[in-house]
């Protein structure tokens, strides 16, 4: 676990620094507010930090680096705690922390990068942690046939109303986002976005995720899911802006820029991992997605189809000119993202992925034989009949150990419960497989050699 955390944190270091993080060592990061305090207590660091802030004011990176004093300040600060500092989403001084982070890292980036490093600490929690909390009110033990007919998004809203904090903040954003300003202005979008941010930042994810990522079997349920963020105010507009212009607008705000960078860091499609997510962590991806709601880049479901999951910001690639390819790439990170789609489906189905250790200890004993259990198909849609009732099933399997069972609920749990998967590869070791037999040719060669030796 320690080595995994180290690798993740190292990957967060800005790849475009003039010297590279490996040349000046790696330090455990502190939050940027604390790093700023440590820098202020050291005269050399504080003076160079003031110099860098003056250098960045109104200048682009090339102009700044052409100034020797600015370059010297940047080199000194790369050795300070400010370089490795990170922030926590929803922390008390989050905006101040992010302002400090970007004051350093904007000077390290070469122009406008497509993917920016996330300023946030990596997520260690997993969906299974949320399932354990959600099982308190998820209708544990419900008949799958009854669960299939229920509206899980409606159930999620009812669960929210049973929690004082969730009910209060949900009622607040509904009231603000539904308040018409004038016949030509349907609502105050700025206030609506602020109320939505407060809801998703302050309400536990076992409530917010159920509302955002609930599993649906019919159009009425899917439409309720789409309406969760009151899209007529928070999402839709008269015209769709160009996606690259929307991204540029988002990056002028430190908070929006950070949430977008975090989404790319945790949800960017990877074809070298089991789940298509960068760190095989669905929880990190869903948290990053929810973190973008309440900004100009707010994503939402594009329709009320219960059989397909397509989300997108309110933008298009019209008028992109020679930047159309880059625009399409940006948009497809939402509309055609297997990591995000799998994460949403996994939550709706109550499944998570359990990764085996990278170097599992060798065991001489053969694993017990287990009856065939179908694995989770890659193209599983959110229209499965299991709904949230499967949450308790998979969780109990993970906690109590697998028992031979061909029930429908158990078959939805991941292949890791019945096979050993080596992370980083597609090799699957079946439980009933044993060591290979020695090659006959090798045995014959040994016998021939022994006979020849006896003859001599």
UniProtKB/TrEMBL annotation:
Transmembrane segments: none annotated. Residues 1-24, 355-382 are annotated as: Disordered. Residues 32-109, 153-233, 243-339 form the GDNF/GAS1 domain. The keyword Lyase does not apply. Glycans are attached at residues 349, 405. Keywords: Cell membrane, Disulfide bond, Glycoprotein, GPI-anchor, Lipoprotein, Membrane, Receptor, Signal. It is found in: Cell membrane. SMART domains: GDNF. It is a lipid-anchor; GPI-anchor. InterPro entries: GDNF/GAS1 (IPR016017), GDNF_alpha (IPR037193), GDNF_rcpt (IPR003438), GDNF_rcpt_a2 (IPR003504), Glial_neurotroph_fac_rcpt_a1/2 (IPR017372). Belongs to the GDNFR family. Receptor for neurturin (NRTN), a growth factor that supports the survival of sympathetic neurons. NRTN-binding leads to autophosphorylation and activation of the RET receptor. Also able to mediate GDNF signaling through the RET tyrosine kinase receptor. This is GDNF family receptor alpha-2.
């Amino acid at each position: 676990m320690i080595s995994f955390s180290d690798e993740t944190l190292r990957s967060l270091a800005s790849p475009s620094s003039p010297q590279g993080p490996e040349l000046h060592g790696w330090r455990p990061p502190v939050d940027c507010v604390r790093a700023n305090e440590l820098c202020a207590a050291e005269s050399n660091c504080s003076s160079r930090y003031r110099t860098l802030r003056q250098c960045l004011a109104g200048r682009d990176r090339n102009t700044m680096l052409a100034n020797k004093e600015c370059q010297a300040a940047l080199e000194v600060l790369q050795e300070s705690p400010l370089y490795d500092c990170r922030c926590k989403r929803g922390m008390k001084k989050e905006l101040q922390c992010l302002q400090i982070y970007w004051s350093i890292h904007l000077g390290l980036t070469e122009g406008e990068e497509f993917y920016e490093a996330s300023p946030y600490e990596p997520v260690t929690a997993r969906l299974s942690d949320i399932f354990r909390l959600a099982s308190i009110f998820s209708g544990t033990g419900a008949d799958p046939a009854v669960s299939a007919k229920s509206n899980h998004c409606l159930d999620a809203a009812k669960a929210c109303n049973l929690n004082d904090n969730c009910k209060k903040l949900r009622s607040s954003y509904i009231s603000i986002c539904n308040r018409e300003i004038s016949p030509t202005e349907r609502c105050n979008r700025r206030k609506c976005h602020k109320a939505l941010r407060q809801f998703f930042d302050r309400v536990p994810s076992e409530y917010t995720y159920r509302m955002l990522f609930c599993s649906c079997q019919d159009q009425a349920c899917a439409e309720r899911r789409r309406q969760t963020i009151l899209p007529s105010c928070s999402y839709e507009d008269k015209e769709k802006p160009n996606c690259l212009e929307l991204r540029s607008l988002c990056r002028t705000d430190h908070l929006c820029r950070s949430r977008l960078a975090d989404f790319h860091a945790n949800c960017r499609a990877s074809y070298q991992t089991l789940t298509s997510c960068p760190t095989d962590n669905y929880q990190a991806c869903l948290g990053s997605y929810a973190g973008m709601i309440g900004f100009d880049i707010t994503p939402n479901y594009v329709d009320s189809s219960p059989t397909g999951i397509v989300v997108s910001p309110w933008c298009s690639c019209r008028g992109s000119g020679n930047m159309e390819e880059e625009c399409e790439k940006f948009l497809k990170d939402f509309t055609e993202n297997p990591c995000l789609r799998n994460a949403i489906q996994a939550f709706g189905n109550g499944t998570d992925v359990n990764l085996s250790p990278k170097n599992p200890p060798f065991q001489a004993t053969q694993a017990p034989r287990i009856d065939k259990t179908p694995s989770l198909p890659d193209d599983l849609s959110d229209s499965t009949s299991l709904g949230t009732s499967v949450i308790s099933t998979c969780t109990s399997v993970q906690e109590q150990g697998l028992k031979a069972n061909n029930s429908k609920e158990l078959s939805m749990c991941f292949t890791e419960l019945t096979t050993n998967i080596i992370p980083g590869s597609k090799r699957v070791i079946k439980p009933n497989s044993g060591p290979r037999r020695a090659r006959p040719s090798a045995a014959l060669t040994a016998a021939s050699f022994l006979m020849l030796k006896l003859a001599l």
